Amino acid sequence: MAKKNIAVYPGSFDPVTFGHIDILKRSLNIFDKVIIAVACNRKKGYLFGQEERVKLIKDTIKSIDEIEDDRVEIVALSGLLVKFVESINARVIIRGLRAVSDFEYELQLATTNRTLNPDIETIFMMTAEKYSFLSSTIVREISRLGGDVSTMVPLLISEELQKLYSKGDRDETLM
């Protein structure tokens, strides 16, 4: 049996957006399997808990016909990303870039990961132009303020955000 070419796509995915899905689909054109590692950073506040994000991504992936869900695995990540990548015998980390402004931070992470394990590569993928403005933070804010995010996130996510914010405080403004 041939060795599978596995990549890890880490992130907060709070919530998952069409930009994330775009990177995933394109990664599946390169790799046999992509493992989405849902991170939990204690310094960040999350709208959805880690297990909830894992479930939302699993359910979202199942609903997308173009994605063979047996080629995607979604896991809750704890600890160092590099240690996780080593533990599953993967050698590639995928990171999406929206703009040059993302690159400096991502380069820092990639360099740190390479210092921890020089055998693990980070591949940067530019998001499709139509998603270059899109971030989970923007989606949360628009949704919180009563805006329509259906062109930014899968239907399941849009519905979950609507439920969550249906009783929320929308007195603040954005932009």
Please identify, by name, the CATH architecture: 3-Layer(aba) Sandwich
Number of helices: 6
CATH topology: Rossmann fold
Strand order of the largest sheet: 3-2-1-4-5
Structurally, how many domains make up the residues?
1
- The proportion of residues forming helix, as a percent range, comes to 25-40%
The CATH class assignment is Alpha Beta
CATH H-level name... which superfamily? HUPs
Element pattern in H and E: EHEHEHEHEHH
Q: Please identify the structural class as seen in this structure.
A: alpha/beta
Any idea what the shape is? globular
Distance between the termini: 54 Å
Estimated share of beta-strand residues? 15-25%
- The Cα radius of gyration reads 16 Å
- Arithmetic mean of pLDDT: 92
Task: Find the count of extended strands (DSSP E, 2+ residues).
Answer: 5
Question: How many strands, which pairing sense, and closed or not: the largest β-sheet?
Answer: 5 strands, parallel
- Name the poorly predicted regions: 170-175
Subunit structure: Homohexamer.
Pathway: Cofactor biosynthesis; coenzyme A biosynthesis; CoA from (R)-pantothenate: step 4/5
EC number: 2.7.7.3
Family: Belongs to the bacterial CoaD family.
What does this protein look like?
The protein is an alpha/beta fold. The protein has one domain (6-132): HUPs (Rossmann fold), CATH 3.40.50.620. Helix content is 39%, strand content 17%. The protein is built from 6 helices and 5 strands; from the N terminus they run βαβαβαβαβαα. It has helices at residues 18-28, 50-62, 81-87, 100-116, 136-144, 155-165, and strands at residues 6-11, 33-38, 72-76, 92-97, 121-126. A 5-stranded parallel sheet has the order 3-2-1-4-5, sandwiched between helices. The chain is globular and about 50 Å long. The model is unreliable at 170-175 (pLDDT under 50).
